[in-house]
DNA sequence: CTCTCAGTTGAATAACCGTTCAACTGTATT
DNA sequence: AATACAGTTGAACGGTTATTCAACTGAGAG
């Protein structure tokens, strides 16, 4: 009987109290990679500048200058955030001469924002 | 005529290109405080440990030890995150002897998580 | 009372991240 | 060709934050 640490998970500093619960919940948990990607996705909405950009684009397509003026921030700061939003496939852009117009590119955004608002507005 | 900077917003480094768009979008934008609170709310979901805890509690009420074992982390790390989740009114707890059981305390969570999953799973 | 164990807490460390700044690209105008 | 302007980019700075560590609380068991 060499079963040491039978009840412990590697980096965990305690024994399992409800072994059956942990086993069942563990079975139905999504893969760690999915959980990681999910957190990365929500992280996008976890910045007020990005949320405000999304809310603005929710009403109308906009260029970088207009967004910067609307939010009272520099073009650079807005451009950096738009890059993140574009990499996450939440936003798309088109060029017209010198001006680059950004618009939303995902149909889940509205529902997610609405659910978030529903929570903070009690 | 002292109207300098008429077309510029305080901390913005460019002039407004589409004045009408900026004005209209500006009218319909939620207050900055609401946007800030919204970002703070989504920040909660922007950490894989917290998302995994939420997903676990989605299946069953659980104590700190079990969550720590399930996720392969220390009780301390889990306890810190549970405190954040509780302060955000996403989680509640009850005590039974030495054991503290945590469970979900918000009906919007499921919908938000589902929308997030719908996005990352294409 | 004492010991054990579940859980909490605060300080400290390290990693992460948003903004700023300066330099740059590209397009239109003259 | 030269200028002006919209937008991008990379490095650097400062603030935020998740985990670790150690000390602590509190409840049950012997």
Would you kindly provide a written description of the structure presented here, covering whatever features stand out?
The structure is a homodimer of 122-residue chains. By secondary structure, chain A is mostly helical. Chain A has one domain (16-121): Arc Repressor Mutant, subunit A (Orthogonal Bundle), CATH 1.10.10. In chain A, 57% of the residues lie in helices and 11% in strands. Chain A has helices spanning 19-28, 32-45, 48-59, 64-71, 75-87, 109-120, and strands at residues 62-63, 91-96, 99-104. Chain A has a three-stranded antiparallel β-sheet with strand order 1-3-2. The first copy, chain A, is elongated, with a radius of gyration of 22 Å. The relative contact order of chain A is 0.10. Residues 1-6 of chain A have low confidence and may be disordered. At the A-B interface, helix 1, helix 2, helix 3, strand 1 and helix 4 of A face helix 1, helix 2, helix 3, strand 1 and helix 4 of B. Chain B binds a DNA duplex (30 and 30 nucleotides) through helix 5.
